[in-house]
Design brief:
393 residues, alpha+beta, D-Maltodextrin-Binding Protein, domain 2, 7-stranded mixed sheet, 12% strand, elongated
């Protein structure tokens, strides 16, 4: 898996419903809009028509029709770190390839972000280099000099805090920490404090040890936020788990597969919402519920980036246009169908382009989503290293 195993540090705190501006719906067809980007309505005099390696928007080098024609002429796109079973990427790649007649070469599907950076650095100037990257935020920020700034046509629909101002990286999809639980056994969960009650004896599990596993760390931080703590201090979350252990309710079982849930050893699981859905954990929808506490919508998102030395610069930019398209069979809805939250979800909900059924399959997210800064994530990890074992280890 990708997002569930990456250490992703996002860069801001923002309302999940906010976006810089509502975008217009995509055309009735499934291709990206052919109108100019809202951020670049006229070609820049510094970019010649057809110079896709330099274009920072489709409009700069001739518009979407010209981009599609140039990408088809290149005929190839190199992607990296896209497992076909993750986030609906098998369907996404097939849809893009079929629609535009472009051959997609998949490099190292199981690669991590550091390996993506190493690949485009090692193969710079060759036809083997990855054209585009699906990368964790820490590496996106650190290595932005390696990326080509580009603003997709739906740029205005992406919240300002979830994209680099120049388009060198743009968050694409992600999720929120949640609590999955057997409602048939425990009833409706409405508060973190309920987990301290006797009916939750030997029932509550994290996805790993928070000293080692990012998902578990974020589970503790979600509790911390739900209890009124701040992203800058995870202490309240650790105190809660100390009480949970003392009550006999915390189980030191790593709840990473449906097996522990099916066996009944982890009927309450802290994990990312896209890994906590009934279909993923193998439970009936009527029994298995997912809860995100008010004030504790703690999220992580990956990012897209274009290799500034992409061997297929037009295809790379068309891929980004496809991924951020709001069309019925565009990337945003296809990601949503894969169980992850697309970055344009709020705008698409507002303008009616969202896949309603896929959207309803994920739990509602309370307003005021929080994304840890790298400094906050590092501080939380240091505190856990010093205090977790004596509190709940």
């Amino acid at each position: 898996m990708r997002l569930s195993l990456k250490v992703i540090a996002a860069i801001a705190v923002l309302p999940v419903s906010a976006c810089s501006a509502a975008s217009s719906p995509s055309p009735a067809g499934d291709s990206p809009p052919v109108s100019s980007s809202p951020s670049a309505t006229a070609a820049s005099p510094a970019v010649k028509p057809g110079d896709w390696a330099a274009a920072t928007s489709a409009a700069e080098a001739g518009g979407m029709r010209a981009l599609i024609a140039a990408a088809k002429k290149e005929g190839t796109l190199n992607v990296i770190a896209l497992p076909p079973t993750w986030a609906n990427y098998a369907t996404i790649v097939k849809t893009f390839s079929t629609r535009y007649g472009i051959t997609v070469h998949s490099i190292a599907p199981g690669a991590r972000s550091a390996q993506e950076i190493a690949q485009i650095t090692r193969d710079k100037g060759s036809a083997r280099a990855a054209d585009v990257l699906d990368i964790e935020m820490s590496d996106a920020v650190m290595h932005r000099r390696l990326f080509a700034p580009y603003r997709v046509t739906t740029w205005a629909a992406i919240p300002a805090a979830q994209k680099a101002a120049d388009g060198s990286w743009v968050q694409d999809y992600g999720g929120f920490m949640s609590i999955g639980y057997n409602a048939a056994r425990f009833g409706k969960l409405t508060s973190i404090r309920q987990l301290l009650g006797p009916r939750f004896a030997r029932s509550v599990a994290l996805d790993g040890n928070p000293v080692q596993a990012r998902a578990a760390l974020y589970g503790v931080m979600m509790v911390n936020l739900a209890l009124g703590g701040t992203p800058g201090s995870i202490a309240s979350g650790v105190t809660f788990f100390r009480k949970l252990k003392a009550a006999g309710n915390f189980v030191a079982v790593q709840a990473t597969t449906p097996l522990t849930i099916e066996a009944g050893s982890t009927p309450v699981v802290f994990n990312w919402d896209y890994l906590n859905t009934p279909a993923i954990v193998g439970q009936l929808r009527k029994n298995w519920k997912v809860f995100i506490p008010s004030g504790a919508a703690l999220g992580v998102f990956n990012a897209q980036a274009i290799n500034k030395d992409a061997p297929h610069p037009a295809a790379a930019r068309l891929w980004e246009e496809f991924l951020f398209s709001q069309a019925k069979r565009g990337g945003q809805n296809l990601w949503l169908a894969g169980g992850v939250r697309p970055v344009e979800q709020a705008a698409m909900t507002a303008n009616g382009t969202i896949d309603q059924a896929a959207s309803r399959s994920l739990p509602p997210v309370p307003a005021g989503a929080v994304f840890l800064t790298p400094e906050q994530a590092a501080h939380a990890a240091a505190y856990l290293h010093a205090n977790w074992s004596k509190a709940a280890g």
